[in-house]
Amino acid sequence: MRLLAACFPASVNCYIVWRGDNPKQELIRRFARWLRNAALPPGAPLPSDRGVFPDQA
């Protein structure tokens, strides 16, 4: 699901930050993936999670 029909170039980076001991880790990660993927231009390949969640191997 796309948030908006139009795409706009970003002039700044955005970050999601949470405590490492948050009991909702998986829910936060799923939201972060969804948000990142929703921001991609139409037809762009989905990026890897490598380096996105450094505490995961």
Describe the structure.
It contains one helix and no strands. 25% of the residues lie in helices and 0% in strands. With 57 residues, the protein is mainly alpha-helical. The mean pLDDT is 79.
The whole-number mean of residue pLDDT values reads 79
Q: Give the number of helices.
A: 1
Biggest sheet: strands, sense, closure?
none
Helical/strand content category? mainly alpha
Secondary structure tally: strands: 0
> Which stretches are low in confidence, meaning pLDDT under 50 for 5 or more residues running?
none
What is the percentage of strand-forming residues? Answer: under 5%
Q: Quote the distance from N terminus to C terminus.
A: 28 Å
Written as H for each helix and E for each strand, in order along the chain, the element string is H
State the helical fraction.
10-25%
Radius of gyration: 13 Å
> What is the 3D shape?
elongated
Provide a brief overview of the structure:
The protein has 57 residues and is an all-alpha fold.
What key attributes describe this structure?
57 residues; mainly alpha; 1 helix; 25% helix
Layout of secondary structure:
Elements: H1 25-38
